[in-house]
């Protein structure tokens, strides 16, 4: 048994390959190992901006500043008499404006990686959720309970995904075999 088999890598790769197969079944282990991998990947990608840019992003979001507001604030400051009389201060003000805008943009760029990963994993995640519901004998559309009954729907979906597989064949096929 190699390292990839020990960590259940095949349970992550198989749903990525079968993202468009909705009329099938997925076992309990395959579903939860896939969910664990997705969770770890998204958490790790979320830690990147926290480590590098969180203090600045948090500050700008908390205060509610965007690029246009920063430009307006610096334009108002540049029009004040003290900055117009001392050229060095006006140059310094332009440097600070560019620095703050670059910090705002750099903080935003890191979130693209997490967003792309979430979008890439969204369809395999929905497909494996559908197949998991099929495995317990329910329609895959039960996942809509999350949106219809937000607090209770999520709990119902969680409990449903923790149920054991049906041992016999059902509308969606034979029980899932071991990979």
Radius of gyration: 25 Å
SSE arrangement, N to C:
HHHHHHHHH
Question: Beta-strand level of the residues, as a percent range?
Answer: under 5%
- Classification by helices and strands: mainly alpha
Largest sheet: none
Please indicate the count of domains: 1
In round numbers, the mean pLDDT is 81
Please give the alpha-carbon distance between the first and last residues.
14 Å
Shape: elongated
Figure out the total of helices: 9
Number of strands: 0
Helix content: over 70%
Regions with pLDDT < 50 over 5+ consecutive residues? Answer: none
Textual characterization of the structure:
By secondary structure, the chain is mostly helical. It has one domain. The protein has nine helices and no strands. The radius of gyration is 25 Å and the shape is elongated. The two termini are 14 Å apart. The mean pLDDT is 81.
């Amino acid at each position: 048994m190699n390292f990839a088999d020990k960590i259940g890598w095949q349970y992550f790769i198989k749903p990525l390959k079968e993202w468009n197969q909705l009329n099938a079944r997925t076992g309990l282990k395959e579903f939860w190992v896939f969910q664990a991998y997705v969770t770890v990947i998204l958490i790790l990608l979320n830690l990147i901006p926290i480590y590098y840019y969180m203090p600045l992003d948090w500050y700008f979001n908390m205060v509610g500043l965007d690029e246009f507001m920063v430009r307006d604030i610096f334009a108002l400051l540049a029009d004040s008499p003290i900055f117009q009389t001392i050229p060095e201060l006006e140059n310094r003000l332009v440097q600070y404006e560019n620095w703050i805008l670059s910090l705002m943009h750099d903080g935003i760029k890191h979130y693209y990686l997490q967003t792309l990963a979430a979008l890439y994993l969204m369809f395999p995640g929905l497909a494996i959720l559908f197949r998991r519901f099929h495995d317990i004998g329910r329609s895959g559309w039960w996942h809509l309970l999350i949106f219809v009954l937000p607090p209770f729907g999520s709990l119902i979906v969680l409990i449903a995904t923790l149920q054991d597989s049906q041992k016999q064949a059902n509308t969606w096929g034979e029980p899932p075999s071991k990979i």
